[in-house]
Specification:
about 30% strand, 4 helices, seven-stranded antiparallel beta sheet, Cyclic Phosphodiesterase, Chain: A, alpha+beta, single chain, about 170 residues
Length: about 170
């Protein structure tokens, strides 16, 4: 399975993403709504050692304004629909620092290395190509909106547990 380091969003942004998840689920798409909280993943590994939580907690963190932007599609056969997070110098710096803490853990995902990372919030997974038009129709007219990163959390996919760090 996987473990990750994630950034969590303020209540208003979380509500906006959850609304989009509901709209997509009503359109018959696989939405993370039932099992997850909206977030921006900054690092993924096969295992993140428990001692890393303390190190992550020592990283300087202040709430960070971000902007959730347009829609992106990752993949081809079973695409993932995401809302881009507009990169800023402060967001890229935070990701680079958090990634650096866990970079020696086993099984680090290549797409979370700082120079390969695309910040985003997942809206729907396993979108078949025929469903893509419906997905874009369902949430494509939603404009960009502001959000604030309000915390850092860890996710353990094996145990399906999350907890705050810092």
């Amino acid at each position: 399975m996987v473990q990750s380091v994630e950034l969590v969003l303020d209540d208003a942004a979380e509500a906006a993403v959850r609304r989009q998840w509901r709209v997509l689920a009503e359109a018959g798409l696989h939405s993370p709504a039932q099992n997850h909280r909206p977030h921006i993943t900054v690092a993924v590994a096969r295992e993140i050692w428990p001692r890393m939580d303390k190190a992550l907690g020592h990283e300087d963190f202040q709430p960070l304004p971000v902007r959730l932007g347009g829609l992106l599609v990752f993949g081809a056969r079973r695409p993932v629909l995401v809302r881009a997070v507009v990169p800023t110098a402060a967001l890229l710096d935070l990701q680079r620092r958090l990634f650096g803490v866990v970079s020696d853990c086993p099984g680090i995902a290549a797409n979370t290395h700082p120079d390969a990372w695309t910040p985003h919030v997942t809206l729907a997974r396993r979108v078949s190509p025929p469903q893509l038009a419906a997905a874009l129709e369902a949430v494509g007219y939603d404009g960009d909106f502001p959000a604030t990163v309000v915390g850092i959390r860890r996710w353990d996919g094996d145990r399906r547990l999350e907890w705050p760090v810092g």
